[in-house]
Design brief:
This protein is an alpha+beta fold. Helices cover about 40% and strands about 20% of the residues. The protein is built from three helices and four strands, in the order ββαββαα. The strands form two sheets. It has a two-stranded antiparallel ribbon. It has a two-stranded antiparallel sheet with strand order 3-4.
């Protein structure tokens, strides 16, 4: 599908056709994250990659220090 960048106020934006928005469950006001990949392509997603990375790091720490956390929880 081809879409065109449009001037929206002082910004540039893309209009998502209503059929696509409905099919993908996109709601007005919903926040998305745009990330650039190594090959120059863009990824548009409702998931925050920084939050995901932080949660993976937290999981690793919790796994590594499981016994310590168990003692502290008592």
């Amino acid at each position: 599908m081809k879409i065109e960048a449009k001037k929206i106020g002082n910004s540039t934006g893309f209009i998502v056709p209503s059929g696509v928005a409905t099919r993908m469950g996109i709601d007005v006001g919903q926040v998305f994250y745009l990330t650039e990949k190594a090959d120059g392509s863009l990824n548009f997603s409702p998931y925050d990659p920084d939050f995901d990375a932080a949660m993976k790091a937290a999981d690793e720490i919790m796994d590594e220090y499981r016994d310590t956390f168990a003692v502290l929880a008592k």
